[in-house]
Amino acid sequence: MTLAQLVTNYFNSSPYGAGASPVPTPHPGCMHWLVTTILPRKLALAFLTVAWSLPTTIVVKKLKPNWDDEFTHELRMYEKLKSLQGKQILVCYGEAYCDGTRALVLEDVGGVSLYHRSALVEMSEEQMAQMILASYRPMISLNIAYDDWKLDNLYLVDGRVVFLDMEYVYELDFDPERAIQLGRAAILERWHQFREQYHKYGEIEMQGATSLRPPRSRLAVRFSPFISRPISQSKWAHLHC
User: What's the pTM value of the predicted model, to 2 decimals?
Assistant: First the structure.
């Protein structure tokens, strides 16, 4: 299914153009799709069905070369963890095609990665551990474990930790409590390492320390609801019909 078809089927819409911009994080397979509706948001919500309430910004994660199995696995895991979407993990809107390549259409969660000062300096170890466990236990309760404990894979969002990237999650085949403690130890080890670097060298020069959200000035997008093919300009990504 193409992204245009995804929008058509899921949001009862018609194909339309949308601006896009690369995501400013170490995830080169992702880009932002900046989407608007034909009416001002309040007016649209008053006259259109809930299905039309597409978020202003979504993230399109393209398949990396030779990663078909991982992509399929990630899509399957989002489905298995559907009850956690929008809370402990990203909302996955489905599969699409971007420039002829398979892609996941995901929530733009905002927030900051655990490389950020607010996570490395302004939080205690106990606070960090509690937040990790609060988000990880619901995943473990579904018999799924996480195994990609990089700090840029976890984001602080409104006082909670959100897990990104489901490529390396797996079905648990050993004691759940042990899995929880292993995860806690893995993330705290990395957190301590980068916390020490922060105190020693100052701000960590990593893109992962920034928000997933692009600068506000880039939120303005072209919208063309009536054309069968989106506007073709190099600075504007487009939906394929």
Answer: 0.69
> Is residue 233 in some structural domain?
no
Rounded average pLDDT per 10-residue block, the chain, 241 residues:
45 41 57 51 47 67 91 95 96 86 89 90 92 96 94 93 93 94 94 89 53 31 27 28 25
Residues facing residue 92 across a β-bridge: 106
The answer to whether position 84 is within a domain reads: yes
User: Tokens representing 164?
Assistant: 């990104």
Q: Containing domain of residue 124, as a range?
A: 112-208
Q: 235: burial class by Cβ within 10 Å (0-12, 13-18, 19+)?
A: exposed
Strands (E), 56-108: 57-62, 92-98, 101-107
User: Residue 199: what residue type?
Assistant: H
The DSSP secondary-structure symbol of 171 reads E
The set of residues, in sequence order, having a beta carbon less than 8 Å from that of 1 and lying 6+ positions away, is 9, 94, 95, 96, 97
pLDDT for position 33: 54
* Same domain for 9 and 98: yes
- The pLDDT of residue 23: 58
User: 64: which DSSP letter?
Assistant: P
Residue 78 lies in a domain: yes
Distance of CA 172 to the CA centre of its chain: 23
For residue 230, tell me if it sits in a domain: no
Closest CA to 147 of 157, 155, 156, 136: 136
Residue 129: which CATH number? 1.10.510
Which structure tokens are listed for 217?
A: 């000035």
Number of domains in the chain: 2
